[in-house]
User: What shape does this take?
Amino acid sequence: SEDPPPGTVLVVEDEPALRALVTRILTRAGYTVLAAERGPEAIALAQSHPGAIDLLLTDVVMPGINGFVLAEHLRAIRPSVRVLMMTGY
Assistant: This one.
């Protein structure tokens, strides 16, 4: 029997190099990755993505909407999404 695919991760990180690195690592591990630079872009992706989003992996400190506020917005439209916060601080 084949293992099921690991799932879909929405990565939100305003630093382009770090966003690219995290996306590459998760993709190589078999995850489907949706990547956004900031909160509004992430919310739009979550609204338009037809499949499940299993995990929100977000930076805490970002311009505009911070990671905590973003998580609240995402949980309102996708209640089952799990949230993992990351920060360089």
